[in-house]
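Most newcomers find our protein records easier to grasp once they have seen one. Each record describes a single protein and holds just a pair of labelled lines. A learned vocabulary of local backbone shapes supplies the integers on the structure line. Nothing more is needed to start thinking about how sequence determines fold. The record below serves as our worked example for the rest of this section.
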Amino acid sequence: MQLSVIILNYNVKHFLEVCIKSVQKALTHINGEIIVVDNASHDGSKEMMQHVFPEITYLYQDTNAGFPKGNNIGVAHAKGKFICILNPDTIVAEDTFAPSVIDPSQPA
């Protein structure tokens, strides 16, 4: 696994869905994973993740442990050589995770 992308969510279902779709496109040509840590959202994020993105690692927390601890939960589950932590209102470009960007020793 080359890259683990961790997204910490709290009650921003729409932003989360758009973010994940952009990350999926950016991961098309590399071996990567997406991990969503949810800090006890109550806006339907959990149901959206289960129905729209069942293949993505989704770690629902019963309480909101805050930003640092939520990200650390994601990092603890990550398998990638590299880790990228994103806020759910982020949209990444399709070439954001190109091999030459995350590992300069790799050809473009």
Summary: Residues 13-26 form the longest helix (14 residues). The two ends are 18 Å apart (CA to CA).
